[in-house]
Amino acid sequence: AKQAGKGTFAFFEPRIGEVVQQRVRLEEALRNAILRDELSIAIQSQYSPSGRLSGGEVLVRWLVGPDGVPVSPGAFIPVAESSGLIKPLTLLVLDKALAVIRQMMQRGIHIPLSVNFSTDLFRDEELINGVLELLAEAGVPAELLVLEITESLFIDTHSDVLDNMGRLMEAGLKFSLDDFGTGYSNLAYLKKMHLSELKIDKSFVDNLPGDDDNRAIVRSILSIARQLKLRVVAEGVETHSQADFLAAHGCDLLQGFLLHKPEPADSWLIELENCFSE
Ligand code: C2E
Ligand code: CA
Ligand code: CA
Ligand code: CA
Fold first, then answer.
1. Angle CA(263)–CA(129)–CA(172) in degrees, nearest 5?
2. Which ligand is closest in space to the CA of residue 239?
3. Does the interface ipTM go beyond 0.95?
4. Per-residue model confidence as pLDDT tens for the chain (278 residues)
5. Are residues 204 and 238 in contact, defined by beta-carbon separation less than 8 angstroms?
6. Do the strands 53-64 and 253-254 form a parallel or antiparallel pair, or are they unpaired?
7. Cα–Cα 20 to 30 A to 156, which of 120, 204, 243, 258?
8. Is the shortest distance between the CB of 130 and ligand 1 below 6 Å?
9. Contact in structure between 78 and 117 (CB atoms under 8 Å)
10. Which atom of ligand 1 is nearest to the CA of 199?
11. Pocket flag, ligand 1, residue 59 (CB < 6 Å)
């Protein structure tokens, strides 16, 4: 490098270096956590407006050290996605989710669980095979597994992405469009992609029912979904007035801290058993 160029960057170098180093450290720690099976899952229940437990979202958890300090998925999922670690992470989460579904089935409870599935994974045929193998090994009907995907999947629809998605669909898996409304909503895709479900993003739920814009957005999402025969889940429901508005306008399922906070799979299963034996 030229002397002058080097000088120009000197001011920024330490900070950029720090950020890069931090990221490398996070990636290393995550790699080890995956290898040592230190990731776990939490489940957040989803309810019908009448209060019936109808499903749950599986959320990855990473607790570090003897005190179990949580690292936010918002911080490590992007690192996993850009480093290739998302593949083993997803298989791990899926394996744990299927184990939970199997335990539910043994108790006679047939409720689907939703697992978050990063967009890039649909390019990976090996991973798709892995998903189908895990399902077969677990002896879980594919109908009990929902994959939550985001609209970014539809920006550049390579044919291999569509093929792989098609293979999972043929196997019986269902797809839910997560964070709906925040991305590249091309309504034509909604029909083409054979989705089963839309999830209204928390940002639209937040100011209900006071905010005029959000009220209009949520009502039109619900009306589109009804016409396309898609189930709608509202995420981030925190207040009774939000829940009441959503229920009054035909939202199928509610998910949020008002109803249930994500909890470790073990205690979720125990709670589930109690709720079904009452
Ligand atoms: P998401 O898919 O939108 O998941 C919902 C997030 O909102 C979760 O945060 C959940 O704990 C939180 N949440 C649920 N109800 C409420 C509420 O009423 N109020 C508020 N303020 N928050 C609520 P979490 O667990 O931190 O996950 C963050 C994001 O990380 C997820 O957003 C998802 O995009 C990603 N993620 C989590 N687990 C996985 C995974 O296993 N695989 C992949 N690829 N991504 C994951
Ligand atoms: Ca999700
Ligand atoms: Ca979401
Ligand atoms: Ca969201």
1. 70
2. 1
3. yes
4. 445 455 555 555 667 778 888 889 999 999 999 999 999 999 999 999 999 999 999 999 999 988 999 999 999 999 999 999 999 999 999 999 999 999 999 999 999 999 999 988 988 999 999 999 999 999 999 999 999 998 777 666 667 888 888 899 999 999 999 988 887 666 777 777 778 999 999 999 999 999 999 999 999 999 999 998 999 999 999 999 999 999 999 999 999 999 999 999 999 999 998 887 76
5. no
6. unpaired
7. 204
8. no
9. no
10. 3
11. yes
Cβ of 45 below 6 Å from ligand 1: no
- How many angstroms separate the alpha carbon of residue 59 from the centre of ligand 1? 6
The residue to which tokens 């958890």 are assigned: 61
- Ligand 1: residue of 77, 206, 207 to mutate (most ligand atoms within 8 A of CB) is 77
Q: Is the dihedral of CA 52, 55, 57, 58 positive or negative?
A: positive
Residue 248, amino acid: A
Which residue's alpha carbon is at the smallest distance from atom 13 of ligand 1?
A: 236
The residue nearest atom 23 of ligand 1, judged by CA position, is 236
**What predicted TM-score, i.e. pTM, was given to this entire model?**
0.92
b (16+ CB within 10 A) / e for 234-273: bbbbeeeebbebbbebebbbbbbeebbebbebeebbeebe
Contacts of 83 (CB under 8 A, 6+ apart): 27, 30, 31
> Per-residue pLDDT tens for 143-192?
999 999 987 776 666 678 888 888 999 999 999 999 888 876 667 777 77
Task: Find the 17 Cα to ligand 4 centroid distance in Å.
Answer: 31
